[in-house]
Amino acid sequence: xxxxxxxxxxxxxxxxxxxxxxxxxxxxxxxxxxxxxxxxxxxxxxxxxxxxxxxxxxxxxxxxxxxxxxxxxxxxxxxxxxxxxxxxxxxxxxxxxxxxxxxxxxxxxxxxxxxxxxxxxxxxxxxxxxxxxxxxxxxxxxxxxxxxxxxxxxxxxxxxxxxxxxxxxxxxxxxxxxxxxxxxxxxxxxxxxxxxxxxxxxxxxxxxxxxxxxxxx
Length: 217
Ligand code: HEC
Ligand code: HEC
Ligand code: HEC
Ligand code: HEC
Ligand code: HEC
What we know:
- By secondary structure, this protein is mainly α.
- Among the domains are: 10-39; 69-80 and 119-215, no CATH class.
- It is 42% helix and 0% strand.
- The chain has helices spanning 9-38, 54-60, 65-68, 83-90, 101-109, 129-133, 139-143, 160-167, 191-201, 212-215.
- It is flat, with a radius of gyration of 25 Å.
- The structure holds heme C (5 copies).
C-alpha cells in the first residue's frame, strides 16, 4: 500500500486531537470565567471605588432617584451621576473626609470615578428604562429594595426567562405611574383588576411584548 502520509503523521494527528481538546477545555474555562466577571451574582454586593451608600442618600437623606439617575424616565439608560452631582453637596459637606478622598480627587483632576457595573446585560439584548417607567413598572420590581442597600447587588437574575415572566403577563405587575419611584410599594389585593386597567390606560402592547424582536433587534 502506498504511503500517503509521512511516518510520523499518526503521532502528529494524536497531538492535534489532544491539543484540540485542551484548547476546547481552556476555552470553556475562559468563557465560564468571563461570564463570572461580567455577570455579578444575584444577592452579592458589588464593591465600589467610593463607599457610596444608597441607604444613607436615598432613604435617610430622602434624595430622589432622579436627582442622580437623571435620564431614567426619558432614555434607554438610567445613567450613573458624574462627580459634579456629588459635589453639589460635598463641596460643603464632609470636606476633607477620607471617605470622600476619591470623590475630591476625581473633581480636582477631572477624571470620572470608575464605578463598577452591577447590572450588565449581554450586548445582544436591547433594554430601555423609559419604556418601563412610563408603563408603570417600578424600580423595585427589577432592582429590589435599593433604598436599604449600602453597596448595591443585583436583585434578580436578569435572564430571558425572568424578563418573559412579566412580558407574558404584565397585568400582574403594573402599578400607577405615580408609584414607580415608591420603593415601599406593595401590590394591592385587586392587582388583577388594576393591572388590566393599567395595560389599557398605558397602551401596553401585550402582543408585541413576548416577541423575540422586542428584545433582540
Ligand atoms: C446621590 C446620588 C444617588 C441617588 C439619590 C440614587 N443613586 Fe443609584 N447610584 C448612584 C451611584 C453613584 C451609583 C453607582 C455606584 C453604585 O453602584 O453604588 C448608583 C447605582 C445604582 C444602581 C446600580 C447600577 C448598576 O451598576 O447596575 C441602581 C440599580 C440604582 N443606583 C438605583 C437607584 C434607585 C432605585 C434610587 C432611588 C431609590 C437611587 N439609585 C438613588 C447614585 C445615586
Ligand atoms: C443632596 C446632598 C448630597 C449629594 C448629592 C451627595 N451626598 Fe454624599 N452625603 C451627604 C450627606 C448629608 C452625608 C452624611 C453626612 C454625615 O452624616 O456626616 C453624605 C455622606 C457621604 C459619604 C460618607 C458616608 C459615611 O460612611 O459616613 C460618602 C462616601 C458620600 N456621601 C458619597 C457621595 C457620592 C459619591 C455622591 C455622588 C454620587 C454623593 N455622596 C452625593 C449628602 C449628599
Ligand atoms: C424592567 C426592569 C427594570 C426597571 C423597572 C428599572 N430597571 Fe434599572 N436596570 C435594569 C436592567 C436590565 C439594567 C441593565 C441594563 C443594561 O445592562 O443594559 C438596569 C440598569 C440600571 C442602572 C445602571 C445604569 C444603566 O442605565 O445601565 C441604573 C442606575 C438603574 N438601572 C436605575 C434604575 C432606576 C432608578 C429605576 C426606577 C426609576 C430603574 N432602574 C428601573 C432593569 C430595570
Ligand atoms: C415587571 C414587568 C417587566 C419586566 C420584569 C421586564 N419588562 Fe420589559 N416591558 C414591560 C412593559 C410593561 C413594557 C412596555 C410595553 C409597551 O409599552 O407596549 C416593556 C417594554 C420593553 C421593551 C420595549 C421598549 C421599546 O422601546 O420598544 C423592551 C426592549 C423590554 N421591555 C426589554 C426587557 C428586558 C430585556 C427585560 C429583562 C431584563 C424586561 N424587559 C423586563 C414590562 C417588563
Ligand atoms: C423580554 C425580553 C426578551 C425576549 C422577548 C426574548 N429574549 Fe432572548 N434573551 C433575553 C435576555 C435578557 C437574555 C439573556 C442575556 C444575558 O444573559 O445577559 C436572552 C438570551 C437569549 C439567547 C442566548 C442564550 C440564552 O438562553 O441565554 C437566545 C438564543 C435568545 N435569547 C433567543 C430568543 C428568542 C428566539 C426569542 C423569541 C422566542 C427571545 N429570545 C425573546 C431577553 C429576551
